[in-house]
Amino acid sequence: MAERILIVEDELVLRETLTYNLVKEGYAVSAAADGRRALELVREDAPDLVLLDIMLPGLDGFEVCRVIRKEHTVPIIMLTARDDVVDKVVGLEIGADDYLTKPFSMRELLARVKAQLRRVRLLRDQYARTEVSQPGNLLVFGGLTLDLDRHEVVLNGEIVTLKPKEYELLVYLAQRRGRVLSRDQILADVWGWDYVGGSRTVDVHIRWLREKIEDNPADPSRLITVRGAGYRFEG
Ligand code: CA
């Protein structure tokens, strides 16, 4: 069955160009010209991916993204006309998965779309495999427990609140315990980004995770930096 993509874009020409190109690639496409309609379509169509313009009439893209994130893990790629919002977009504050700065080429857009859809499939397979090999779906590392069924992380008996990307990153690293993973590898697998220059995002999320799951974030014992190589989970 065709994967479903929701386009949220108020500029008619761009909306139609995106629709045309994505349909040609074999995706099932729905489109909205404003934020409210976008939220309706997310609920009705359960898309596999959302392309979301930031500057929209009424409810803007940031607000739409926040609302979607409260209920859905669907990958969201933001479309922006400005470079200076990038930090805000990829920060967990908004919860988008990737962004494209206008004007962008269709080739670039399609590459990003494919990367996000592949990332989600990888994640799904990973959970499916874990289900078979780990009774109860618990990963236990001393005082730290990851409950993959309930998407819950417990540290020393207390539930830790993680943003979706922090959770994904932690599960990803924990399932590869002891292995050194480069920033580029992590970026490709967890974010679905296969372009360079985004590795700062990994560092920022590791820092946030350390604040939440390390007994002493300044001297981590779980999320280890391997100088010149990347990160390793110890547990
Ligand atoms: Ca716009």
Folded structure, characterized:
The protein has 235 residues and is α/β, with parallel strands linked by helices. Helix content is 44%, strand content 20%. It folds into 2 domains: 4-119, Response regulator (Rossmann fold); 134-233, Arc Repressor Mutant, subunit A. Helix 2 runs parallel beside helix 3 (61-71), helix 6 packs across helix 7 and helix 6 crosses helix 8 (199-213). It is elongated and about 55 Å long. The termini are far apart. The model has no long low-confidence stretch (mean pLDDT 88). Bound molecules: calcium ion. Calcium ion is lined by residues 10-11, 53, 55-56. Calcium ion (CA) binds at residues 10-11, 53, 55-56.
Number of extended strands: 11
Mean of residue pLDDT? Answer: 88
- Looking at the overall shape, the CATH architecture of the largest domain is 3-Layer(aba) Sandwich
Low-confidence stretches: none
Distance from N terminus to C terminus (CA atoms, Å) equals: 40 Å
Oligomer: single chain
Put simply, the count of helices is 8
Summing up helix and strand content along with how strands pair, one would put the structural category as alpha/beta
CATH class of the largest domain: Alpha Beta
Bound molecules: calcium ion
